[in-house]
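ok so for the tutorial part 2 we go from a plain amino acid sequence to predicted structure tokens. step 1 is just haveing the sequence, like this:
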Amino acid sequence: MHLVYPAVLSALLFCTGLYGVLARRNAILVLMSVELMLNAVNLNLVAFDVWLSRAARDTLHSGQALTLFTITVAAAEIGIGLAIVLAVYRNRGTSDIDKLRDTAEGRGDAEPGAVEAQKTEATA
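step 2 — the prediction. this is what the tokens look like for a chain of 124 residues:
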């Protein structure tokens, strides 16, 4: 098999994941897109490892070892990421990234209690 086929598939997977990261608003879908990008990298690592192992008979299969390391890091990342998303959802009531970005930027010179005071004044 040629190296072109897995490389093109990997590029398509990576571009799909990149689109998902840039276009999605839901934090869980963004995490899924990051996983898709990591799987594209894993596919590239294994494809190049197989391609390079044909040239040299004694190889360490470092591409496959790096793939296992990437899978381990991705599993830890998705576990911590989901825990953070669940904690934010419990506190804020939404997992919409745009709304969370607005709350993270704050109001500039306003103090934390001033925003709540403005809300109570507006409802009164």
